[in-house]
Amino acid sequence: MPIPDEPASCFAIPDSVFDLARDNFAAAGRTLRNVRRDFHEWHRGRPRYALWAIDVDLPAVRQLVEDAARLLDDVLLDDYRRQPHVTLALCGFPSRQPAHPDDFGPAALERQLDALQRIAGAPFRLEIGGLASFTSAPFLSVRDVEGGIGRLRHALCGPRTEPGGPYTPHVTIGLYGNEWPTEALLERFNTSTREVVHCTVTKLSLMCYAASDIGGPLATLGQFDLVHGRWEGLDSRIFPALDDGQALPNFAAMLKNADQSVT
Fold it and tell me: What residue ranges define each of the domains in the chain, with the CATH number in brackets?
């Protein structure tokens, strides 16, 4: 049964997280260098990594991302192909029979879907815009104007906290390709557009990417419909019958039309 309606302030992610991110970025002095390689010590041969996200791959958002990427083109790692999205919660490596702490199995998905049924609430608005940065990656800030992001986080993560600091909703622009002075980058951020895109979120997506491809594209495995409180996904698609030697999904076929409405 859904929980009673709560004021947005009970769940909303505060704007102060962006001030903290900016302060931390300035204090770091230099960015982190990302490298393009197969992180086998992390994925250990497991082909896909799953996460819950809000798909914001819309023309207006893509334009903001492209404008920011052009402004920072000389400092970014090449070939970042991940579509605009707002990560809500990391899940792990999908496995029908989890064997590692970072595996994501059917029981974990069932618990999350049950929590979404009870807590997720109705569609909500958010605002995307304003260039900022972590030490590893620049991003567009995402303001949780109606508390919907915080509410979904509460359903998916409960009281769990982020290991690297407070959860900061964002749309990643790309990854830094070297160690760059943060002071000079902050000066660039100040010249960026102040345009803001307003979105209405009606769905959240369970997505995945090829674990061996840093910055590779996302594929959608299923969606939770906030309008009807309904899960739309197939267990067999998320957890293939065979974990050993399973083929990667056809990402090109799974990627959604770039011009569709926000989900």
Answer: 27-34+47-254 (3.90.1140.10)
